TrEMBL record, chain A:
Pfam families in alphabetical order: BPD_transp_2
Domain of life: Bacteria
Name used for this protein in its record: Branched-chain amino acid ABC transporter permease
Topology in the lipid bilayer: Multi-pass membrane protein
Protein's UniProt keywords contain DNA damage: no
Amino acid sequence: MQQLLNTALGGLTLGMVYAAFALALVLIWRSTRVVNFAQAPMAMVTTFVALVIVDAGHSYWLAFAAALASGLVLGAVIERVVVRPVEGGPEINAVILTLGLFIVLHALAAVIFGNRYRSFPAPFGVRGIEVGGTTIALTGFGIFTILAVLVTMGLLLLLFQRTDIGLRMRASAFNPEVARLLGVRVGRMLTLGWALASVVGSLAGLLIAGGSLVHPGYMDSVVVYGFVAAVLGGLDSPFGAVVGGLLLGLALSFVSGYVGSQLVALAALVILMLVLVLRPGGLFAQTAARRV
Amino acid sequence: MPAMLTITDLAAGYGPVRALDGVSFTAERGRVTAVLGANGAGKTTLLRTISGLHRAERGSVDLDGQRLDKVAAERMPALGLAHVPEGRGVITELTVEENLRLGALGRAGKVDSSDLERVYGLFPVLADRRAATAHVLSGGERQMLVVGRALMARPTTLLLDEPSLGLAPRIVAQIFELLRGLVESESLTVLLVEQNARSALSIAHRGVVLNLGRVVADDDADALAADDQLRHAYLGF
């Protein structure tokens, strides 16, 4: 019973991070039809920004805010400088560019921040909480992780569903030409979409790093699961990304806890294949054949 | 009637293909001007060039004394020009009401509920389905939605692209009846691009016939409809 609970709690925490990462991928895919392979190193760079600030003796929260802010700027700059110039060409061009960016950011981080493992602080305890004499696998930082992702998702939902700017962003993503005719500055909306996605990616990076070790490649395994989660949900659906992330986190936690931790990556592949065979558009694809 | 929209020597194309080759005509204020012609005559390119979606190679577009040919498409709603794409221009992933609200964002000033209520008054069908995703609407309802959405920006001039496309004859008659009423009640200037020449001429005051990117006729709608030779050669009825 206790193992079941702990496995579920571990899966939930991890699933939240996958969900955040998948959401970042979906936000970009939905608006610009680019699979952003550079998402992981972008998050890694912003985590190192936080680490530099912490190492300089400032508080975790200042570093946290600075990482998110630098994520916002980094996302906007990459959209403007790297993605925008190839817009209108074959869609694969932008994807290849993000792969190139993956390598460049890795290399730059190794040069600037050093290519070794460094410990990253956590603002809350990373030991299991005690409930009635037994320790459960839910840490203070785990609770923070879950809440931070939930709050972020709530804010994004409000932005997209309840504000004019959110309506403009959705219109730009769904039908850029019609949006232009209605007076929407589509280019700005796409930049904003990348910036927001990059903030969500940075959050995932900070949450993975908390109480753990960081290294220029520390996000690379997360990116694989983030992609799987995004595809599980159907790349077009932010809601699907969140559910996909949670399902994947739970499933992998159970595989790790009951079957064997060496099978986790294989299990992710099996889950992905099963879903794609049964529902090729992903679990929550609303418009599987929308692209013309 | 004074000119609202003046097109002078407009040329545009796609690479080596000349879609518009020196088109000139005027659309009078408060009137419906039909632009007719077969598929490939340049009608849609004309609208896209006027509204800034396609770049003109030569010539000018003037809306009520203001040059439009260097203005970006996204600024047109603020200048009073609304380009209504054919029914496929509905954003199907958004709800009916979100489509309408989007229409008002391009103009200066705040959207208030009176704009929405006005459009719902004109198209009661849309009011019944305001919370529905636009994807469930029929072809006729989609056409009403794109027209209603354009009206949300309180335009002076409407560019209508093939409002009859893909609709059953009964629905086409209904849409044109609605348009006729709107032009009178809102005193709109309308440039109506149509392949369905008979329906278009029934509500237009003037007609311009395009063939291979050039104007081959520009006359009162009644005169065009009465010209048997022109009808047979270009209008197909």
